[in-house]
Design goal:
homodimer; alpha/beta; globular
Amino acid sequence: MVKFDYDGCGSFVSDEEQQRYVQTALKAYDLLMAGDGAGSDFLGWKTLPSDVPESLIEECEAVRDDWKAKGVDLVLVIGIGGSYLGSKCAIEALSHSFIRPEGVPQIVFAGQNLSEEYLSEVLDLAKIRNVACVVISKSGTTTEPAVAFRIIKNYIEETYGEKEASERIVAVTDARRGALKTLAERKGYRSFVVPDNVGGRFSVLTPVGLLPIVLAGFDVRQMLEGAAEMQKYLSLDRSEFNPAVLYASIRNLLYAEKGFSTEILVCYTPKLQYLGEWWKQLFGESEGKEGKGIFPASVVCTTDLHSMGQFIQDGSRNLFETVVSVEKSNRDLTVFPDGQNYDELNYLAGQHVEHCNAMAQLGTSMAHIEGGVPQMVLSIERINERNLGSLFYFFEFSCGISAYMLGVNPFNQPGVETYKHKMFALLKKPGYESI
Amino acid sequence: MVKFDYDGCGSFVSDEEQQRYVQTALKAYDLLMAGDGAGSDFLGWKTLPSDVPESLIEECEAVRDDWKAKGVDLVLVIGIGGSYLGSKCAIEALSHSFIRPEGVPQIVFAGQNLSEEYLSEVLDLAKIRNVACVVISKSGTTTEPAVAFRIIKNYIEETYGEKEASERIVAVTDARRGALKTLAERKGYRSFVVPDNVGGRFSVLTPVGLLPIVLAGFDVRQMLEGAAEMQKYLSLDRSEFNPAVLYASIRNLLYAEKGFSTEILVCYTPKLQYLGEWWKQLFGESEGKEGKGIFPASVVCTTDLHSMGQFIQDGSRNLFETVVSVEKSNRDLTVFPDGQNYDELNYLAGQHVEHCNAMAQLGTSMAHIEGGVPQMVLSIERINERNLGSLFYFFEFSCGISAYMLGVNPFNQPGVETYKHKMFALLKKPGYESI
């Protein structure tokens, strides 16, 4: 499923230190399992993999099939933060980089910024396509998605008429209250529920993530199975061998005792670029508070070995790496021999491109560890729905343990309000007169 | 052109400290201008904006026109690191996010990774399109681009025949020697020169960057003019008011005296996402050596306010920000009034979306500074070729000063070789038997 290897930390931490941190981690584990730590109103994600009913998946598929029958070839998914990154990550990981399969709509995200240019370009695209929209917002009043949805809803209503528009818009929102819930009821939109006890960054296995992933043509049953398997594994093994306990232990040890203040999530495929973004929100927002937290960064290799590689190898020594390693490629391409061999690559003739990638990864690991960068490795066999589900759950669970170890509430984000208050005052929103 | 504002650092540094660092920066400035600092064989970038001859641009345009006449609708640009990020940055900043103008080829990058899946998908796309290729490599033997080029060259030759292939492949490489130069001569490829005295991360205004940007349909004359204007401005003003001197001074002061170890490049438009990537290579590879250097990170707002925002506001206090601010949108879209106002946005009715974005930026700046994050702001009027040229030159010049202040050679990257040596040994490349 997911293999965890921390040999690359051996020269940086002693067994005694590790044991000490594992003991603290096990206390945090108990807190998380018992549900009596800080933020315990937001532990719904813990049992999501086994809680999601088959009927919910069928409802997602019904939307997919209805829109397919209408010939929809563009779905605008409106959301920001946790209502964006989970599905973006899964869809980028699973999709062909350039070609969309017949019968599957293009997924384009909107409402994840306030760029006038970007939103104008989304409308340009909408105007030449057959469009539907998923709007994801618990409240319906978060500025970015609300602005985008007001504009896109208007476009869809004007183009297809009010009645047809109500069949082309689906809301993912609060079960009972809020602006979007009210609007959805009044307009007759189908809606899906964002559970009260799951925070945004933990919501990829709710309809927030599942619906867009289904619409993009992927198998969320497999994703939930992978997550459920990981849920079972992590929740049954209260020991020093639990990989989430180990991951949380070692990263806190490196941070608190050894001066490593930045963690880089590393992958060796561009498909996982947005796993890095999703992970940065998960850990950054959960742990970055009260003047504490490991700064989360990410790189995609080997691309970034030619940009950030120099710094990681030889710059300030306050970095450690967590590599998400993919053992097998889903495609098949080899380097063939060339008579002239001007490029001196014949020594690779007959090798898979991915073999070169794997050796680059191995060589880089050795070089970085020698250079003073501790390294942990999480391996999956290949990129697919199942393994992504496992990874999502692994990181969520680890994050809960890790933030409890740090002594912060993993499930709030008080700092996010600060800029909003000032922005509202500057925008002269009623009720926000003072900056 | 570019405005520089460091008011957001006022509460973190004293005038006396700033003056002291400015004096050091002016010494570094002198070293850079005189060309007698470390790495002075690689100062060709300093005068590139005024050195690039009109004939070079015309040669780029001739390639563009020839390929247009052949109906080419896909140009594969093969390169990594500095042979990738400059043109990627400019093309992403200037292009429509979703729609390609009639008569302009799609630009797809390859050879910037060793992913078997990615390269297979590039070939899938090539097979349904009319293809040409630019291969960028000084030596022709860098593993990633060499592997990609061997495979893509073979595809083009098999599809179009040897003779036609030689008209569909252009090399950007060394003037005299190397594998790619040899191949280009033998096959009769048109070639462009990577100057000996310009390192990869400083090469965006050489054919390495200019040719792909021309092929993507943009005006490099404007880009060079913007850079030349900045060159003139920065090289004539040896004073404490020179913005490159100030930027280099303050970032070194924050790093060396105040414990700020990470700099985040912030922009408020997804168009500049790859400016962050280009900047990370420029500063990370120039400064990250000998156990020193400010760790370069980047965020795109407001997107990342909903992921990294919590950490920046309230996490570990070792971050400072440099914002690249864009004053005007190139498009026009306003929030309109809505009778029901369920989303409570009517207070924004009649406002440009970009006004909301600007207020988010201003509010965030205030919040982050209050939260303990020093901030500098570089402003451009709008995103266009001219202003990108100015930004490129500004950052390159600042980087030279800044790295000299740090006491390192800005123009080498010895750490990049370490992983390569191990990778070659693991791949059993002749001559690299020991790890």
